[in-house]
């Protein structure tokens, strides 16, 4: 079974999203939690971009010992030098160099020809390699690049010494089949690609970031870049918890898993949410408040009889202590009776019938029925067990 590396960019790409900035102490807290989670690589920031980013890369590099720590750099000496200096105390430093390869970016943003782009990749990657052994090259906007040219860019970066090549879907544009085809094309057309890690970095503009990352893993990508709770530019990046649990839950099909300590997922998600002050939607996969809650009677009955009927993974596996039976108008008598027993009430059949009917009436009046409402209904009627 292959191990897929998890490259977390919550502190770099994630922090670029509006309203998600963090101060130094908060970044250190997140980085320590990412270390507990056992991510393979923490992208701590973009050292050259500001004195604050430089300081956070430097402090995280000093503090974190069990993960590789990366700093982003444009393909220029000044950026690479800043990353190198900020990472000087890292146990395992990685310089992450990027340059765009799509016609749009080369013509309008970089104002460079294809030849100039290849020359810049060669120079910047070999310079970074002269400083550290672990260099990643990202072909920005890879998914909208000409595949034959992208293959040349990938080969140039490999020859210059890059150990990881990342092919981002920078603007979240492509569909899973296209990501699959891009990875397959590189595997079939670039010599040396099997000796390095092929990574993907998907944005969520069309809600495809996780699906695109998984399609890439299916085609042979060995590193996935993602953020906690999927925070990031515009609609965000691929969500770490979804990627990790999708790979873990379907590991037999994918013949792959990650090294993540999944029991730390819930805690990591809540910590980030508290720090940046952005709440998690209740229906968010894996970490939303309703991700392991069952309200409908049919589901509750099924889960009480055998959890796998409606749970494809256990709440314990993501760090929760239990699933949640929510009482509401779709709940059945079985779950209602169970709930009462948990509260310590043992009703006769007749008492249960009356209480259940009153409970259903109450459900039509209230959005959420709490255990206090249920206690109020039955307290007069029954003695505690
Ligand atoms: O989305 C992107 O292309 C990036 C690169 C800098 C890796 O964030
Ligand atoms: Zn990005």
TrEMBL record:
It comes from the Bacteria. Keywords: Acyltransferase, Amino-acid biosynthesis, Branched-chain amino acid biosynthesis, Cytoplasm, Leucine biosynthesis, Manganese, Metal-binding, Transferase. Mn(2+) binds at residues 13, 201, 203, 237. Pathway: Amino-acid biosynthesis; L-leucine biosynthesis; L-leucine from 3-methyl-2-oxobutanoate: step 1/4. Its cofactor is Mn(2+). The keyword Metal-binding applies. Its EC number is 2.3.3.13. Residues 4-266 form the Pyruvate carboxyltransferase domain. It catalyses: 3-methyl-2-oxobutanoate + acetyl-CoA + H2O = (2S)-2-isopropylmalate + CoA + H(+). One of its GO terms (molecular function) is 2-isopropylmalate synthase activity. The keyword Chaperone does not apply. Catalyzes the condensation of the acetyl group of acetyl-CoA with 3-methyl-2-oxobutanoate (2-ketoisovalerate) to form 3-carboxy-3-hydroxy-4-methylpentanoate (2-isopropylmalate). Homodimer. Belongs to the alpha-IPM synthase/homocitrate synthase family. LeuA type 1 subfamily. This is 2-isopropylmalate synthase. It comes from Christensenella tenuis. The lineage of its organism: Bacteria, Bacillati, Bacillota, Clostridia, Christensenellales.
